[in-house]
Amino acid sequence: MGVGALLAIALGAILILLVLVIRYEFSAYVSLLLVAMGTGIVAGMPIADVVPAMIEGMGKVLGSVAIIVGLGSMLGRMVEVSGGAEVLATKFTHVLGQKRVIAAVTAAAFILGIPVFFDVGFIILAPLVFAFAKVAGLHPVKLGLPVAGVLLTVHVALPPHPGPVAAAASMGADAGLMTLIGLVLCAIVGVAGFFAARLFQVDAIQLLDSPATAALAGSGDDPAEGSTAGPGGSATAVATRRPGAGTVTGLILLPIVMIMVGSVAATVLPKGDAFRDFASYLGQPATALLVSVIVAYFVIGGRMGWDKTERSKVLDSALTMVAVIIFVTGAGGVFGNILVKTGIGDALADQLDAMGLPLIVAGYIICLALRAAQGSATVAFLTAGALIQPSFAAGGYTPLQVVVLTLATCFGGLGLSHINDSGFWIVTRYLGLSVGNGLRTWTILSTFMSLVGFVLCLGVWALV
């Protein structure tokens, strides 16, 4: 099938999906599966391969997302239900003042996001975002958008995140130099995204049922429904039992520190080193979050005076809240995998590669287009890097120029996060945004930040 036909099929599939979930308000999960199946058949996949490709796509995403979202939401739920998130938010809001809350939380997210995957960081920080919003009287999207933006920025551009590391290896860029330059550029992109997010008029947005709305409600007598009181507990007694700001901060930092240790060990120690392997094991998000949940079970549960039944009830209630997020995110992976298997992404990349654009522009545009076409940022900049690598390998570029080229390509993976991106569903479903509102806010913000990153790379390129 020709390139034009494949691209038309991809565009048509996305438009149909948007009509189903926005115009007819049909289930996003069913819509994604239906459109993915139809796209595979229309694009000429052997009919026997369509369902296996869908299952493969679901497995690729849920293999990591289900564990991370499940454990991360449990940790957040313990902190939230105990009132610990509100205690921390109240303390910092009092110290910083309401006007500085968004900037402070966004800056903290930037720092904490350097060693932590985007989805892990967002899920861990989400309860704090909602608590700060509640205490400061802010719409949670005002906080959630810039936090998600900076987390995704460092995820796509900075080692030790696996995508940038793989891109650096593929394109022959020095990972250390890429980290130093990338830190400066990502910080500027984060500031630009922070100010851009303030321009969105989100106060009128009615949030869907989500962890955000549940956290803002935070009422009831059942620990699993948001109360901090056990049976017979009074509000005064509960207030004295709430975990302190230091305890909550420690619980939030525990998995992040474990992941950071694992990342540093994997970077500086040689393969086969016993401590490197052990640290890498401890630094796996699944391990770090599992340890943190167990610690929270004993520390928060003991502090609140919850018995074993109450503690387990709080943990299990977290899974009910995020079940839709997990399933819809997995369905987004199904759609993305179908787009990859049909060859739509490769056809688009080849077409753009043949246009003869300047190398730094070609890398960015190819990556951005692939990101829009098939969803995965990592696949996008690895594919784009592989396409342009022969050209700059023969061009005699300096190590600094190679780093700038690599960063420009990676920033292409930051933009156009939409319905075929699992991260889109995590952000919008956690914040309670409809698909339409998600496209009008998160998609636009991520694309703006992507463009800022690319323009910065162009500026550095002109100087080097």
Brief sketch in words of this structure:
With 464 residues, this protein is mostly helical. The protein is built from 21 helices and no strands.
Topology (elements, then pairings):
Elements: H1 3-23, H2 28-42, H3 47-81, H4 84-96, H5 101-113, H6 118-136, H7 140-157, H8 162-171, H9 175-197, H10 211-217, H11 235-241, H12 245-268, H13 274-282, H14 285-304, H15 308-341, H16 344-353, H17 359-374, H18 377-393, H19 399-412, H20 422-431, H21 435-463
Helix pairs in contact: 1-2, 1-16, 2-3, 2-15, 3-6, 3-14, 3-15, 4-6, 4-12, 5-6, 5-7, 6-7, 6-10, 6-20, 7-9, 7-21, 8-18, 8-19, 9-19, 9-21, 12-13, 12-14, 15-20, 16-17, 16-18, 17-18, 17-19, 18-19, 19-21
Describe the structure.
With 464 residues, the chain is an all-alpha fold. It has 21 helices and no strands. It has helices spanning 3-23, 28-42, 47-81, 84-96, 101-113, 118-136, 140-157, 162-171, 175-197, 211-217, 235-241, 245-268, 274-282, 285-304, 308-341, 344-353, 359-374, 377-393, 399-412, 422-431, 435-463. Helix 3 runs antiparallel to helix 15, helix 7 crosses helix 21 (435-463) and helix 8 (162-171) runs parallel beside helix 18. It is globular and about 65 Å long.
Name its key features.
mainly alpha, 0% strand
Number of strands: 0
Mean pLDDT: 83
Largest β sheet strand count, sense and barrel closure? none
Strand content: under 5%
Low-confidence stretches: 226-237
Helix content: over 70%
- The ordered string of helix (H) and strand (E) elements is HHHHHHHHHHHHHHHHHHHHH
CA-atom Rg in angstroms:
22 Å
Distance between the termini: 42 Å
Which geometry do the CA atoms define?
Answer: globular
The structural class is: mainly alpha
User: How many individual helices?
Assistant: 21
